[in-house]
Amino acid sequence: MATGDDKSEEKLWGGRFTGATDPIMEKFNASIGFDKRMWKEDITGSLAYIKAIERLGLVTAAECLSISDGLRAIYKEWESNSFVIKPFDEDIHTANERRLKELIGDAAGKLHTGRSRNDQVTVDMRLWLREAIKNIRSYLISFIQVSLSRAKRDIDVLMPGYTHLQQAQPIRWSHWVLCHATSLLRDLQRLDQTANRADELTLGSGALAGNAFGVDRQMLAKELRFSRVSSNSLDATMDRDFVIDFLYWASVTMLHLSRWAEDLIIYSSKEFGFATLADAYSTGSSLMPQKKNADSLELIRGKAGSVCGRLTGFMMSYKGLPSTYNKDLQEDKIAMFETYDSMSELLQIATGVLSTLTVHKSRCQGALTSDMLATDLAYYLVRKGIPFREAHSLSGLCVAAAEAKSVKLCDLPLVDLQAISQDFGPDVMLVWNYENSVEQYTSVGGTAKSAVLHQIDAMEKVLKE
Ligand code: ARG
Predict the structure, then answer these.
(1) Is 227 assigned a catalytic role?
(2) Residue 10 pLDDT
(3) Distance between CA atoms of residues 296 and 302, nearest Å
(4) Fewer Cβ close by (within 10 Å): the C or N end of the chain?
(5) Cross-strand bridge partners of residue 169
(6) Do 420 and 394 meet the contact criterion of CB atoms below 8 Å apart?
(7) pLDDT tens-digit profile of 300-340?
């Protein structure tokens, strides 16, 4: 175990310290365990920064070359998994700089001129999140695309639509598929807005006051492909809104996916039997041999809780912080990485579940009952000129009459219908047809085939843009 004095020598910020750090404090303080995931971004940021300060004459061309070469060598070490993390490497920033010094000597100390870990960490995170969002975006798009192709394929399947989880009106299965794809398409747009918020260069803000050497931040932004430069150095070092935006995006997406999962869990139960999950996404019971559980969907539903928890958790860490950098902010990366890991995994699982799902047309259609056409019966009277409110109550009387006779609504004899309203004629028989029922809803957004195809078309266009 090194003595306190040894430690002060090894720490990059150790200059003013004489005492030793409690070993538990050492561990407690360190973020290398998780922020090493940003090794690439940290080096990319440093490569841009060294160029920028060379322009200012703060390092010579030879020093710039030596530092850049050293950084590239470190890059290769990380890439080949041979970078060795030392006990006093507190975070990715100090670890890379420590290694640079080992490789090229004292010139390494010039890299940090005018820079602070406070601006370094946010630029690393913004670079990291940019790539992360690209991946997640492609997973989200795949899910929506699979929804569209399943909606096309199963367009002829009719099923009960529900409100309050009670049978309401017949709809197309595809209409249900598309309702979730529609909310996820909004999530895609929200994700793009999130990416846009993160697209701002914070490097060149120093510890808090700015950059004392007049570094060209526009050049840095261009080099690191950011479209804007942050406008206030205090804000730039304390701002983690882009993390919160990402966590919020994930939370809303999970609210949606958990509802999708819940529907499918219900639909795939024996009682419903509308769909069967592929074995690849189900598991069995260790005790009951007959069981096939929708664990994939339950996990998605469950992860909605943890994802939302990370959002509220980090917001609570963020709340009430005094201006600029405080160590509380180190919690940001845990939330960001864990959320990314959950989202990228579960979006791929969701896509797999949907693409391999078997839809049982006969079970879906077998669940339709003629009392789900009570609205259609009222519409029949509306088309004969009866005001809707009156037609609604007349149809209600028909439902009650059928119940009293213990017959299906569609089997209530014409004389009984006519006893309720003289406007019922023999053509009322045409009402008892589920296909005709759904085909009434041709207005934009409805469940008629043409309207469903229109939705698919419109969403495909949005995805192409
Ligand atoms: N590991 C730190 C974090 O993630 C980096 C910034 C440290 N800055 C400081 N002033 N101690 O937040």
Answers:
(1) no
(2) 66
(3) 10
(4) C
(5) 161
(6) yes
(7) 999 999 999 999 999 999 999 999 999 999 999 999 999 99
Give the position of tokens 């990291």: 128
The pLDDT tens digits for 353-391 are: 999 999 999 999 999 999 999 999 999 999 999 999 999
Taking the C-alpha atoms of residue 113 and residue 106, their distance in angstroms, rounded to an integer, is: 13
Q: Is the pTM of this model over 0.70?
A: yes
The Cα 120–Cα 122 span in angstroms is 6
Tokens 């490497």 sit on residue? 89
The one catalytic residue in 80, 82, 164, 406 is: 164
Q: Whose CA is nearest to atom 7 of ligand 1?
A: 117
- List all residues whose CB is within 6 A of at least one atom of ligand 1: 31, 35, 91, 117-118, 121, 325, 329-330, 333
Mean pLDDT of the chain: 95
Positive or negative CA dihedral for 411, 415, 421, 427? positive
| Long-range contacts of residues 414-420, Cβ cutoff 8 Å, at least 24 apart | 420/394
Give the position of tokens 């059928």. 402
Let me know: does 167 contact 160? Beta carbons within 8 Å.
yes
Cα distances from 142 to residues 10, 49, 184, 312, in angstroms, run 48, 37, 11, 28
Nearest to 50 by CA among 102, 113, 103, 116: 113
DSSP labels, 193-240: HHHHHH--B-TT-TTTT--TT---HHHHHHHTT-S-B-S-HHHHHH--
Which tokens hold the place of 115? 């820079």
Q: Where are the alpha helices (DSSP H) in 212-360?
A: 217-223, 233-238, 241-267, 295-318, 331-356
pLDDT at residue 34, rounded to an integer = 98
Residue 164 designated active-site? yes
Could you tell me what percent of the chain has a pLDDT over 70? 98
According to the model, what pLDDT value does residue 292 have? 82
pLDDT of residue 90: 97
